[in-house]
Amino acid sequence: MPWFKRTDKGILTPTEAKREVPDGLWFKSPAGKIVHTRELKNNAYVVPEEEYHVKIGSKEYFEILFDNNEFTELDENMQSGDPLKFVDTKPYPKRIKESMTKTDLKDAVRTAYGKMNGLDITIACMDFIFIGGSMGSVVGEKIARAMDHSLQYNKPFLMISRSGGARMMEAGLSLMQMAKTSAKIALLDEAKIPYISLLTDPTTGGVTASYAMLGDFNIAEPGALIGFAGPRVIRETIGKDLPEGFQSAEFVLEHGFLDFIIDRRSLKSRLTVLLKMLG
C-alpha cells in the first residue's frame, strides 16, 4: 500500500538538523491565543485582540514605566529574618532562601526612583512569585522607606500591588505593616505629595485593607481580582450567592471603590497626564 510510504525523501528534515523551539518563546492566553513573547513585550504584556493583561512583576513594570528602563533601586539587599522561629512544613528561613534562589528576588517588593516621561517618581512594585506576594516585615519596611524618599525629595509615589495578603509566617509582625504603611501615607497626604495606587491581579487580604486602597487615586488593570476575603469565605459568611463578576475590577469600579480602570498600554501616558494635572 504505497500511500503509507513517503517516496519523496527530499522533503524530509534530517534528525541532526531538527531544532526544538526554546522554552518561553511563545505565550498561550487563557482563551487559547498563541502570541510570540517579543510581540507580547512590545504590547506591554497585553495579548493583542483579546486585551488580556498577562500577570507580570516589578521587572516588567519598571521596564514599562521608567524612561529607558533607567532607575535607582532602594534597599535592594534587604532580606527577611526569622523573628518568630516559625516552623510549618519547613523552616521559614529555608523557604525564604528557596524563594530567593527560584525568583532571583530578595523579597516580595522592589522599590526604585527615576523619571517617567521626564517626571520624577518613586515606585514600589510587588512580585507575586515571591511567596504569593505576601506582605511581611521587609515588604512594609521597604515601602515605608520608599515613601520617606518621596517625602524627602517631594516626588509622587506610585504603589503597584499584587498580593495574596499578609505573610502568615510573621503573624502579628506582618499585620503591623498595615499600620506602618498607612501612617506613611498620611504623611504624604499632609505634604501634598500625590499617592497613586495601582491594583493588579490579584490584590487581596491585608494589602487591600491598607495601602492598596488608600491612594489619592485608586486605579486598576482590567479584570483584576480585588478583595479582602475570598468569594468562598464571603459566600459562607453571608449565606448568599454572590453576583456575577464579584470582586473584579469592573465590579469594584461600578460600586465606587475605584477611580478608573486603565489599560496597561496607556499606563505611562495616563499617569503622566494625571501627575501634570496635579501640578
Task: Please explain how this structure is put together.
There is one protein chain. This protein is of the alpha/beta class and 279 residues long. The chain has two domains: 1-54, no CATH class; 56-278, 2-enoyl-CoA Hydratase, Chain A, domain 1. Helices cover 33% and strands 19% of the residues. The protein has nine helices and eleven strands. The chain has helices at residues 37-42, 58-65, 92-103, 137-153, 171-190, 205-208, 231-238, 249-254, 267-278, and strands spanning 26-28, 34-36, 46-47, 52-53, 71-74, 109-116, 119-126, 157-163, 195-203, 217-220, 260-261. The strands form three sheets. Strands 5-6-7-8-9-10-11 form a seven-stranded mixed beta sheet, with helices on both faces. Helix 5 links the parallel strand 8 and strand 9 (195-203). Helix 4 runs parallel beside helix 5. The longest helix has 20 residues, at 171-190. The chain is globular. The chain starts with 25 loop residues before the first strand and ends with a helix. Residues 13-22 have low confidence and may be disordered.
